[in-house]
Amino acid sequence: MNLWRMRNGPRKFQAAYGSRRSSTFSRSQKSSQSPPMKKRLAILEELRLWLRGRFTLTNEEKLWLLIVLIILWAGLLGRYFHLKNQTAEPLTDQQVEERLSP
Question: Considering the entire predicted model, what is its pTM?
């Protein structure tokens, strides 16, 4: 077996286009071409299906996630309105002395 092929594998243009002989394209043009659009769409479709299979949730999991998100949003909204309605009050002299004394 050829050492070059052992190190680098089959030539890209042979794998993509089959025959070594071509009437329209030279070797440099063939190796620089991108795969056809149909192959890209098929790859993206398979990726989408794979991701959907990994991240789908059952109805029970969706319910628990919804409950957790509702609790989280209720806490955030409560904190927002609490901080919004707080007013700054000046300290009295007695409070200042209490805080400064060790």
Answer: 0.42
